[in-house]
Amino acid sequence: MTKIKLGALTFLFLQFMLMADVALAARIKDIAQLAGVRGNQLVGYGLVIGLDGTGDSNSTRFTTQSLANMMERLGVAVNPAAIKVDNVAAVIVTAELPPFAKAGSTIDVLVSSIGDADSLAGGSLLMTPLKGPDGNVYAVAQGPLVVGSLAFGGKAAQVQKNHPTVGRLPGGAYVEREVPFALDGSRPLRYQLTNPDFTTATRIAAAINNHFQGSLASPLDSASLAVDVPPAYRERLIEFVAALEVLPVQPDATAKIVVNERTGTIVMGEGVRIATVAVSHGNLNLVISESAEVSQPFPFSMGETVVVPQTDILVSEDQGNLVVLEMGVCIGDVARALNAIGATPRDLIAIFQAIKASGAMHAELVIL
What we know:
The chain is about 25% helix and about 35% strand. The protein is an alpha+beta fold. The radius of gyration is 33 Å and the shape is flat.
């Protein structure tokens, strides 16, 4: 009976460890993508109409010319010099065409003012062709803008919330042309890693080979690997890709410490290690205060009242603490040890730079 209980406990422990590894792992689709399956950037030039006097001024020549050209295409002859464009704004429309987007589907677009318009709130985008890098039109956008901001006021004061010269059209563009791309099961599939790493590429290949019971995947370099399609999946390539992308893999990465000196932000990775090093921290406080002392002469004397400035300078230095960090400590021990000596985030940045310069830090220090 004791052996049965011991075996059951061992089985539960192994199941718990396996579940913990799976929980820490990431799916292949989250750390790698199929080569060629990517979005495409689109851009176009258009006009936003219906603004309440917050459009471009008459000094914006391209807005006036664009409005005149549009009116002529609609059969209305106008004089560009007589046009007022207070309710019109020239904009650049950008969008991303997702992979496998079909004709007739909709995509979101971003509308940004390029003139001197004050706000795009309440405006509507006129029909704007969106072109790709090859010059072909892949989508057409039109519709009312969603700005999500406000800006109003007078000459003396103004109130503004968010950014009023940029708006969005959710689903405001129809796809007119598809980007040709077809999956070929007769050739190996190529996956590209989001963060190139030799260890991660090797683990992905091992996970694929173990799941499909064959030597299908092989790393090409730190950023890509080739995957052969099994004969049973040649006619069911989509099912093979779907089964492959959900396989759990524990990604690896180079130990890094990322610091931003402007904001005092510090982000440290899990694999950061340091050698034995001693860190001393001391704060130097310099306080300068000025006061005015008035020298008042005696009554009925010929003297003058004189203001004499007084300057007090106080210099103090806090007691320095010397903390020894042992070799191979983890990032949690580093944080606790440095917090114990009262180091602020900006002090930590200077300390990390000094530790890196001494050669005791086994991690990459990235300064933004």
